[in-house]
Amino acid sequence: MKPYKKLSKKQTQTLQDIINSPQSSGREVRRSQAVLLLNQKMDIQMIISLTKYSRRQIFDLRKNYLKKGIKVILDKRKGKPKEILTKKQRDEIMKILTTKSPRDYDYECDYWTATILGDLIEREYKVKYKSKTSVYILFKQAKFTFHKPGRVYEKRDEKEVRKWRKDAKIKVKQALQEPNTIILTEDEMVLSTQTTFQKIWLPQGEYPKIEISNTKKNCSIYGFLNIRDGKEHAFKTEWQNMYITHDILGKLRKIYPDQKILLIWDKAPWHKGSKSQEFIKEDGNINTIEFPRAAPEENPQEHVWKHGRSKISHNKSIMDINKTTDDFIDYLNNTKFYYSFLGIKTSRSAES
């Protein structure tokens, strides 16, 4: 294969200037990062994971940048976003971003996102931006940089999330006062032989090389976290549907044969399916609460998955999906996970 032409120092600096400029859009920064990382010979799968561009898009960006220059990187119709916050208000936001966290403003999240900052601006200053570009500029002015992970869910409604948090907190507090009530947060995940990546820090000039698995096989896992004592109950399945959910609820009932269960899970169709609801109705001692739409960070079980992936499956080539899934479940079921839920102190967190 003919080696591709590398960027000149001037071309490299131009892309770096775009990344560092507070006036650059998110798309411009992402395009620049893709070209620079390819020029530095970073593993292509890692670049795909970080930028969300396809292999072809990444190579086309580099090719066209070398041929046509900076206009390939810049947004064609980008204009200066309308600034509708006063200078004093922008200064206040800079102070908030650099000295506070979303939790200081009743968001169940440790890190700032465009959605959360946009909602906070609307709440505090009655200003609503039509696009996230203006919010991105505020982050850049505060010298924030984009980091993975961070999914933005279009269906998320912060007002809905706040209302849910307020209502759910009352029910969970009441359940915690009942010694015979078990409170479980639930979610499912899919473990795949396809290699997944996690951001890692290395000395400048060094780049990770990770063996990639091209064969894709999946196993599903149902996970239930007891928020009172941090105990995890994970179950391996072939996939997710209402019949499997029915069977898993039966296994869960064997673990807690006499207790009342408050089950908090999302709006997945297999949760709402007739077989799942049939088990809950016949059991007669299970109450459910549904998480709000597009708000996965509200669910402590999501953090259990993240922790498990970090320990067992990230940055590894999985050859035997069944063995890795068994190892994953074994790790989860033998580890305690103490996460804050709705800002409520459980008996365990109160002791620490």
At a glance:
The protein is 46% helix and 11% strand. By secondary structure, the chain is of the alpha/beta class.
- Give helix % range: 40-55%
Q: Could you describe the largest sheet, including whether it forms a barrel?
A: 5 strands, mixed
CATH architecture of the largest domain: 2-Layer Sandwich
Q: In percent, how much strand structure appears in the residues? A: 5-15%
Shape: globular
| Low-confidence runs | 195-202, 209-214
Terminal Cα span: 60 Å
Give the number of helices. Answer: 14
Mean pLDDT: 82
Helical/strand content category: alpha/beta
Q: Name the CATH superfamily classification of the largest domain.
A: Ribonuclease H-like superfamily/Ribonuclease H
Keywords:
352 residues; alpha/beta; Nucleotidyltransferase, domain 5; five-stranded mixed sheet; globular
